[in-house]
Amino acid sequence: MQGLQLLVDFVTNMDQQERLDQPGWLSDWFQRGDKNQDGRMSFREVQRLLHMMNVDMEQEYAFQLFQAADMSQSDTLEGEEFIEFYKALTKRDEVQELFENFSADGQKLTLLEFVDFLQEEQKEGDHASDLALELIDRYEPSESGKLRHVLSLDGFLSYLSSKDGDIFNPSCLPVYQDMTQPLNHYYINSSHNTYLVGDQLCGQSSVEGYIRALKRGCRCVEVDIWDGPSGEPIVYHGHTLTSRILFKEVVAAVAQYAFQTSDYPVILSLEIHCSREQQEIIAQHLIEILGEQLLTSTLDGLLPTQLPSPEELRRKILVKGKKLRTLEEDLEEEEEELESELEREQEAGLPLEGQAEPETPELSPRSKDKKEKKSTPIMCPSLSALVVYMKTVSFHSFPHSREHYRFYELSSFSETKARRLIKEAGNEFVQHNAWQLSRVYPSGLRTDSSNYNPQELWNAGCQMVAMNVQTAGLEMDICDGLFRQNGGCGYVLKPDFLRDTQSSFHPERPISPFKARTLLVQVISGQQLPKVDKTKEGCIVDPLVRVEVFGIRPDTTRQETSYVENNGFNPYWGQTLCFRVLVPELALLRFVVKDYNWRSRNDFVGQYTLPWTCMQQGYRHIHLLSKDGTRLHPASIFVHLCIREGLDGDES
């Protein structure tokens, strides 16, 4: 800290001439952007230069400011005109006021002043001093400012608009969670009827559905397989008018795209409606097309006592489906075959490698349960053998599952049944999901491929909550919001109270020791919010901001600001919203900008959803996404977030 103080003293003692000179560095940039060196810049040159300077600007707004700064009406900007244009472009009164609150001279933030801001407002903690130096070096545009370790207003705004000033904590962007726990300890990004790109009755089936789902991070995709012509199995939504695609084309797409977005395992959820002959073809295609990627036996050839981890299953494709026998019986047969082979080799007088008898794997308590009655024998053994850790079984009751099922067996639930179980036996469902996987799928009544809210199923620890990923909207925003973290790898570690088989947590009736929090959200301003209907001439948005919390039922709520009339460029709200949250570990926040319309429902402008656990406190920008989840560049809102312990909110 002594060196830091010496540096601060040096900067504080600078004379007036040494202060940051904005026109100076802007003139340097102007020289770079003026391609033909005629001292003037066209709008095209200005656009290119702003891109080089990392300044975001919607083209129409930029052109309006360009025309206002073009005092000579020459359709070009000279040096002084460009400086005025830049000032108008980046003018943010609310940021300037914040800057001046921490700056002694209103011209710059010294290193110590910036450290104070990072600690007091941004809650950066003990590493704020080192972070301040990094951020100045990264965002201060003036070389003299960088050398003196001070931050100008332009540098301060650049920081606040960057990923470091974003609401989403950058440390949650890469894979940051423990990936060595059993699969059932994770939420798994899952797709329903993945082959459909439209509705469930007449929609198109396409390999593109699998490519899109895998590219967006889905790790569990569904394949409905039926007998096809010429002996080739086909994929479509049975007993409907949806189009057909070849199963082998689906497998080829999965082989190519499975690990482009994430290295963690992909689960093929097979719904088989085929004859035994075409089941043989299914098994053959899986083995031949997927090759080494396909998991065909337990990782070490021994009987496990729990599911393997995502880390252990890196770049592996698992088959989920019905199985003729138990895993124990499969392994016993493999052992018998090995012994028979050894005996034949001994009789032939061949040398043996390692004479030691293979160890009999120790059975887990659940594995010693009496064996189930065998499934219908029409299933093909070669396909059954490819189901290792994901054997599907019918659900009867939670006591029945505990008594008769094994950890590698899993059940599927319709959304309706799963919701009913949460209400009737929420704690038992939580305990069930702590040792066994569950898959939940949309109701058959959702023929339009609409979605349900996955949050209430996640609250009970359900891992594979399958979504119609082709249908954008609130529910997919929530799903994308949860899986945005952890490198977008498709696996998110459940909170510890959902991984404990003795957990007392009930999603409908939460009690301590879950730590309640109060969140204060000051919605300050918006930047460059787009027109909702660009076909209407002169149509300007009347924006309002709605903040929504999704979590357990008592935590799920929403509040909104008033609307600002006719201002999408820089609307100002300055309103504080207060939320009391009982179980923050399960909460997601969704920020939605709407265009106020007194005649009808407010029109959607943009949104951003993220987990509570990935939220940064302090003054933050939220970069909005469009309805289909793509970046709504450069639209954003500026907020201040403060989290307090307990439920006593003070909005002052």
Question: What is the topology, as strand order, of the major beta sheet?
Answer: 6-15-14-13-12-11-10-7-8-9
The structure class reads alpha/beta
The radius of gyration is: 30 Å
As a percent range, the share of helical residues equals: 25-40%
Question: Which helices and strands appear, and what pairs or packs with what?
Answer:
Layout: H1 2-12, H2 22-33, E1 40-41, H3 43-52, H4 59-69, E2 77-78, H5 79-90, H6 93-102, E3 108-109, H7 111-120, H8 128-139, H9 143-148, E4 151-152, H10 153-160, E5 186-188, E6 190-191, H11 207-215, E7 220-226, E8 234-235, E9 245-246, H12 247-257, E10 266-273, H13 276-290, E11 317-321, H14 327-347, H15 381-384, E12 387-392, H16 398-404, E13 409-414, H17 415-433, E14 438-441, H18 455-458, E15 464-467, H19 474-483, E16 491-493, E17 517-527, E18 543-550, E19 557-560, E20 572-581, E21 588-595, E22 603-611, E23 618-625, E24 631-645
Parallel strand pairs: 6-15, 7-10, 10-11, 11-12, 12-13, 13-14, 14-15
Antiparallel strand pairs: 1-2, 3-4, 5-16, 7-8, 8-9, 17-20, 17-24, 18-19, 18-21, 21-22, 23-24
Helix pairs in contact: 2-3, 4-5, 7-8, 8-10, 11-12, 12-13
Provide an overview of this structure.
- By secondary structure, the protein is α/β, with parallel strands linked by helices.
- The chain contains 19 helices and 24 strands.
- Strand 21 and strand 22 form a beta hairpin.
- The N terminus is likely disordered.
